[in-house]
Write a sequence for this structure.
């Protein structure tokens, strides 16, 4: 049995509470509040206490899916990404950069948001980038 | 937030408006409770009797969408009693005279008629806030999700400047952001008009700077917001959409319209961790990683940048989102080869002045509050000390405007929407957490006891709620939390999707839809 705790930041609201995820044999099994986090000082709300529960949900997406004959069908990463890149190029070439739009995310990390908008702006050439800031 | 979360504890008066803090930001509520224990006055203004109202020294139940009138009324009282800080106004602001002319018309008596709050309560709130040593304003989506969202925010800024409650410890105008990393998504340029660090795309010097940094030709045309993208899809000018970790099929107003628009896309790519209703419409679905499966940073509502650390490998074949983008970008023809999120952060800090001093090494410990312009800079607890970012603070003369949709004989009830304590956003994560799901397995509609009697419904009965856009059948929860003539529904539940009903009319500047007010009719469902 391998047991570890990993200090991280809550994904459920803008308070940004800190806690340790308890990891047992490669699975997240619990949450322990972090006393030294300046925001939460060892407290968490009901969402934070249970934040580990969705991670290994059987409903998680585990494979890329591509619509084939109307149905979403599991495919390899190569197939999914090649298809996406190729279709985006075709659409950009036929209709211009501004025919492509991106919704970035208030749920993914800063680094990921940075890459999404960089991809939109530098690779595709459009400023059509927005996210659900308004929610 | 202009000020940090801990500072709330030392405020002498906190005005909480349009924020169900104990549900949506529980750990901010903790600080408000501590302030109260220290003797601070807590003023809560909300059309719905939120839990925090129980603890308030003064609760003002203003009518939906009358925030500008209410705050103008408080400022009218402050001016006529000379409670404003004239030296602050003279030294640090402009536009005061024009502003004063508008506010002078909002006498407490007139405001009382508009808002339903007594003139006396308006006077008391004005007195406590203006005459506190440190007065703080906390607000959330109850302020922003209106066709007058920007007016509402500017009016709160007026209040803080008028009383000098800004740019000092424990004061400020403090928005609580809805989702965990909204602050970060904005900071990183996830917006159609700005590069990372709020550098406008239509300023030539910025464009040049980023063209050099990214070695690419960039567009100086401001891009589309989400409502614009949906319009573009319907009109055929937008053909491909990539959606990352968002679920507009549940979260956006007038879901029928959203669905039609998304179905028009020639290419819809959705990257998420669950097969959301939005993903079900996609041509390509890319499985991303949850926050426990990757390294990176989040920026919380007080601008604190903190580490997210990888605890486990992504499930199945799922991948860290940053790896997906860079692979896609490279295949598209623009090479990206980052070795780690730390490397991406190094690039962010090189092009984003407010993140200039932020690196993964420095984030061990308490994190850093931006602006943090250099490697030696300790970060910034509160903003606008001594000077506003634009130089002088600008007063805006703002008149009250009623909500876009009004009740009438056919749609006689006001509907407002919001969050509840155990769920997050469209529920994709919380509703897949057994403990949280059990707490609140389905949606409900709050109905005032008087209205319930007139409708002939008991708690747990089903009603049909219809707006001009759609209808939902949902169980009622009879409660005086809502006033007569007003109903409330949480938006987390796809089966009873509040956003089938909501009005997509949005603020002319910020494009925020009016989630908080629309007109509906109710009838008992059989
Ligand atoms: S533990 Fe609760 S209050 Fe803290 S960040 Fe998570 S959801 Fe927000």
């Amino acid at each position: 049995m391998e047991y570890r705790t990993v200090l991280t930041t809550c994904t459920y609201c803008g308070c940004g509470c800190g806690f340790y995820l308890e990891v047992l044999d490669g699975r997240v099994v619990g949450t322990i509040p972090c006393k030294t986090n300046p925001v939460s000082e060892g407290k968490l709300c009901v969402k934070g206490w249970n934040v580990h529960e969705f991670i290994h949900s059987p409903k998680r997406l585990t494979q890329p899916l591509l619509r084939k004959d109307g149905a979403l069908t599991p495919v390899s990463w190569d197939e999914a990404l090649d298809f996406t890149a190729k279709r985006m190029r075709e659409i950009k070439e036929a209709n211009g950069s501004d025919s492509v739009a991106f919704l970035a995310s208030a749920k993914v990390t800063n680094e990921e948001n940075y890459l999404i908008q960089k991809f939109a702006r530098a690779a595709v050439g459009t400023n059509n980038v927005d996210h659900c800031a308004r929610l | 937030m202009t000020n940090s979360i801990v500072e709330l504890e030392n405020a002498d008066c906190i005005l909480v408006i349009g924020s169900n803090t104990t549900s949506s930001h529980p750990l901010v509520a903790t600080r408000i409770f501590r302030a109260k224990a220290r003797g601070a006055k807590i003023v809560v203004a909300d059309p719905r009797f939120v839990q925090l109202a129980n603890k308030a020294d003064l609760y003002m139940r203003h009518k939906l969408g009358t925030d500008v009138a209410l705050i103008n009324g408080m400022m009218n009282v402050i001016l006529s009693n000379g409670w404003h800080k004239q030296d602050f106004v003279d030294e640090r602001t402009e536009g005061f005279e024009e502003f004063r002319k508008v506010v002078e018309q909002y006498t407490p008596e007139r405001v009382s008629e508009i808002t339903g709050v007594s003139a006396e309560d308006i006077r008391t709130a004005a007195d406590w806030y203006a005459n506190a040593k440190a007065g703080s304003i906390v607000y959330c989506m109850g302020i922003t999700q209106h066709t007058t969202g920007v007016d509402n925010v500017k009016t709160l800024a007026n209040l803080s400047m008028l009383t000098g409650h800004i740019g000092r410890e424990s004061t400020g105008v403090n928005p609580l952001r809805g989702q965990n990393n909204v602050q970060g998504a904005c900071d990183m340029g996830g917006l159609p008009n700005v590069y990372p660090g709020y550098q406008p795309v239509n300023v030539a010097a910025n464009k040049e700077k980023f063209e050099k940094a990214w070695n690419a030709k960039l567009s100086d045309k401001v891009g589309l917001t989400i409502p614009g993208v949906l319009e573009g899809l319907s009109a055929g000018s937008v053909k491909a959409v990539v959606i990352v970790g968002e679920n507009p099929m549940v979260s956006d107003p007038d879901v029928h319209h959203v669905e039609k628009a998304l179905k028009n896309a020639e290419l819809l790519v959705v990257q998420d961790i669950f097969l959301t209703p939005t993903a079900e419409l996609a041509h390509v679905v890319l499985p991303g990683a949850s926050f426990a499966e990757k390294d990176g940073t989040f920026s919380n509502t007080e601008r604190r940048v903190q580490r997210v650390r990888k605890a486990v490998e992504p499930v199945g074949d799922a991948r860290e989102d940053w790896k997906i983008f860079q692979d896609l970008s490279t295949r598209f023809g623009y090479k990206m080869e980052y070795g780690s999120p730390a490397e991406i952060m190094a690039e962010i800090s090189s092009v984003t002045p407010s993140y200039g001093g932020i690196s993964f090494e420095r984030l061990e410990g308490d994190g850093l509050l931006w602006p943090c312009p250099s490697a030696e800079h300790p970060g910034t607890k509160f903003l606008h000390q001594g000077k506003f970012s634009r130089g002088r603070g600008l007063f805006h003369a703002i008149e009250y405007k009623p909500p876009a949709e009004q009740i009438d004989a056919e749609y006689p009830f006001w509907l407002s929407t919001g969050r509840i304590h155990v769920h997050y956003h469209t529920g994709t994560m919380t509703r897949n957490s057994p403990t949280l799901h059990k707490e609140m397995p389905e949606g409900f509609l709050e109905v005032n006891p008087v209205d319930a009697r007139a409708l002939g419904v008991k708690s747990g009965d089903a009603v049909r709620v219809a707006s001009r856009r759609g209808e939902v059948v949902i169980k009622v929860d009879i409660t005086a939390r809502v006033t007569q003539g007003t109903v409330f529904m949480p938006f987390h539940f796809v089966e009873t999707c509040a956003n089938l009903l909501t009005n997509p009319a949005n603020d002319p500047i910020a494009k925020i839809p009016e989630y908080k007010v629309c007109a509906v009719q109710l009838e008992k469902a059989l």
Remarks:
- Chain B has three domains: 5-176, 182-223+288-369, 413-524.
- The longest helix of chain B spans residues 67-80.
